[in-house]
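Session log. Operator J.P. requested a structure for one protein chain; no other inputs attached. Running the standard single-chain path with token output.
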Amino acid sequence: MAIGCLARIHVKLPVNYVEFNHIPQHLKDMAWEEVEHNTTLPPEAKSVVLADLKDIWRRWKHEIKMKYFLPHIDDPEYLSQSPTECVEQDQWKELVIYWTDEDVQKIARKNSVNVSKKQCLHRLGELHLQLWNKRHISLRSCLRSLSQKENKEFNDEIFKNTMGEEKYRKLTGRAEKPKIENVIASMSFVHENEELKMLKDGLLEEREKIKQIQDEFRKEKEQLKLEKEKIASLSQKLEELISQLPTLSSMLPTTTQVRN
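Structure written below.
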């Protein structure tokens, strides 16, 4: 069974609890056992699966509120019965009582205002920017060393040793939790960029060599042009001399004149 479907089954993970952590542990254990039974995930994946179930469960509960409760908040008759078979009647009644509580509504309005003021959400999870940059630089150095080795694959161990174990905790404020597969994908992109940079550097070197050859060819071409101009000038002078030969011949004395 898909995790998304499992999180929406009211019998397995009831929605009438304020927080996912308030759900009895035996129900969460049963949900994990069902996932484990239908997949090949190792026992170490339990915390990750439960964290995903928590996120999906929260989104599902929010969807119920936005779709079935808020549009009919002033209609007691509508709210008296569960609007969907996906939510059990007893659970729906508890949800309505909780959502209509004045204190809960004040908190919800305050949270909505605070969220609307936020424009740029950070994506670093629990790590502050300075520590993230430090670890990111360390990871880049690992990738740079790997790029010099043939048939060396980037693996999860390098990520864990550099960035630390992945943890799911409640964060202060609203942020997106970075997941290992997403960060590894981005780091693999960095690894590919390193290889592209090496190829680019090699291409630039080849371009420099080609440019030098072109410059030498251009110089030789200019010298050849000068030689051609000299040859053309000499040819012109030779033609002028040849054209003047009849005149010079007529100016020479004949044999009879020489004897006299």
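Operator note: The radius of gyration is 42 Å.
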